[in-house]
Amino acid sequence: MSLTSSSVKPVSVLVVGAGARGEIYSRYALAHPELMRVVAVAEPRDVYREQFVAQHDIAPESVFKDWKDAAAEEKMADAVLICTQDSMHLEPALAFAALGYHMLLEKPLSPDSQECRDIVQAVQRAGVIFSVGHVLRYTRYTQKLKQLLRDKAIGDVVSMQHLEPVGYWHQAHSFVRGNWRNDQHSASMLLQKSCHDIDWIRYIMDTPCEQVSSFGGLRHFRAENQPAGAADNCLDCGVESQCPYSAKKIYLGDTHKSTQGFLRVLTPDVSQENLLAALRNGQYGRCVYRCDNNVVDHQVVNIQFAGGKTASFTMTAFTRHEDRKTQLFGSHGTLEGDGRFIRITSFIDDSETVYDVDDIDSIDPAQSSTMSGHGGGDYYLMAHFIDAIRRNDASQILSGPRETLESHLMVFAAERARRECAVIAVHSA
Ligand SMILES: NC(=O)c1ccc[n+]([C@@H]2O[C@H](COP(=O)([O-])OP(=O)(O)OC[C@H]3O[C@@H](n4cnc5c(N)ncnc54)[C@H](O)[C@@H]3O)[C@@H](O)[C@H]2O)c1
């Protein structure tokens, strides 16, 4: 795909929700003003909205506090990025599809399977270009791996093992203290986080899914595991120094674990003073054993594909924060991947070949921009979306409506399998 500019004017974009994801995707316009321009925003939180307006120099008449106000106006941009929280995707998706906006919708489509179908129907009816935030499909690593499989580097792929190492402090941030801690307010862990992985597994196996089973639960982040002497806020805790999940360790000091992106979730102006106030008064200073969380901290899913191929998936909080690990088992060899290196072992001559994805191009645009998140997936997802609109070519989209609905239905079936201790058939989208 060419990322070069042409004489066509930049794709104009309305951003709905200038939180973490809206801000990140919009950086594509700053890296490539000749390709994309953010011309409007809807964001209720004053400081986040004002920072975003200044960053993109948006005209006052195109600044809204609520997506409904933007949807009430005539169409003001070529495309909309819908980056509100999970349970707030349906309504804006239906409204902006009806107005004819090309659409990038964050994953998951919706926590409700019928709403997922409704969204897909609406964008198909509107005939707009539609992309979903399945960033893992777009990385150079994934594309290299797909190419090797297309070239039959390990023959016929028979089975797969895939690990999603969420990471102990990332789990504490997002799924114990943070926005996705409770499925009553957001979605199951499998849908919220691992929908990326189930979607990726389906993409790599390239075969329709037939049935799933699953086990897992919330084992560790529970009240009964709070250590003796612990306080309900890490700032008051006498045993915090011995706790891996200490908010002081994660967010404060010189060696804190979180990145700037995570810190901005706590406060838009990241200073020690503001962070301390956020830990004292907000949700991120809470003891991980005293939160209102209910989503799982570990889960396994087994998948059977058409023709009897299989995959097993493990999600766990109890790892370092690192890249996913995959093994593929084929009729003529094996493939091991870790997000950067791909190692092929051939059964024909026992040879080993290792590919380093970082060697593919001397200059990786994702790494040289501020959009290197998700292994460059954030950058390449935007590059494909904008290019698809410029060329009016939906084939640039690697996670369009049909594929996305199919992998979402796999997730809903797997979560049902876990809750009901059953094997669940998956009917194609
Ligand atoms: N693709 C990925 O890898 C990835 C990673 C993290 C999150 N996500 C998904 O992205 C979505 C957003 O997550 P986030 O971390 O950016 O959340 P966020 O809370 O940082 O951002 C959501 C924004 O929507 C705004 N909002 C609320 N009501 C609104 C309204 N009526 N009109 C306009 N804006 C409104 C909020 O004020 C907030 O700024 C979620 O669905 C999440 O699951 C995807």
What attributes does this structure have?
single chain, 429 residues, alpha/beta, Rossmann fold, Dihydrodipicolinate Reductase, domain 2, 6-stranded parallel β-sheet, 15 helices, disordered N terminus, binds nicotinamide-adenine-dinucleotide, Oxidoreductase, nucleotide binding
Short synopsis of the structure:
This protein has helices at residues 20-31, 46-56, 67-71, 90-98, 113-126, 140-150, 168-177, 189-192, 195-205, 247-251, 260-266, 272-281, 365-368, 377-391, 401-420; strands spanning 11-16, 36-42, 63-64, 79-82, 102-105, 130-132, 157-165, 209-217, 298-305, 310-316, 325-330, 333-337, 341-346, 352-356, 424-425. With 429 residues, it is of the alpha/beta class. Bound molecules: nicotinamide-adenine-dinucleotide.
Give me the secondary-structure category.
Answer: alpha/beta
- Compute the separation of the termini in Å: 28 Å
CATH topology of the largest domain: the name is Dihydrodipicolinate Reductase, domain 2
Low-confidence stretches: 1-5
State the helical fraction.
Answer: 25-40%
In total, the number of strands is: 15
Biggest β-sheet description: 9 strands, mixed
Total number of domains: 3
| Distinct ligands | nicotinamide-adenine-dinucleotide
Mean pLDDT: 94
SS strand fraction: 15-25%
Report the CATH architecture of the largest domain: 2-Layer Sandwich
Gyration radius, in Å: 22 Å
CATH class of the largest domain: Alpha Beta
GO molecular function: nucleotide binding
Protein name: Oxidoreductase
Domain Gfo/Idh/MocA-like oxidoreductase N-terminal: 12-134
Domain Gfo/Idh/MocA-like oxidoreductase C-terminal: 146-420
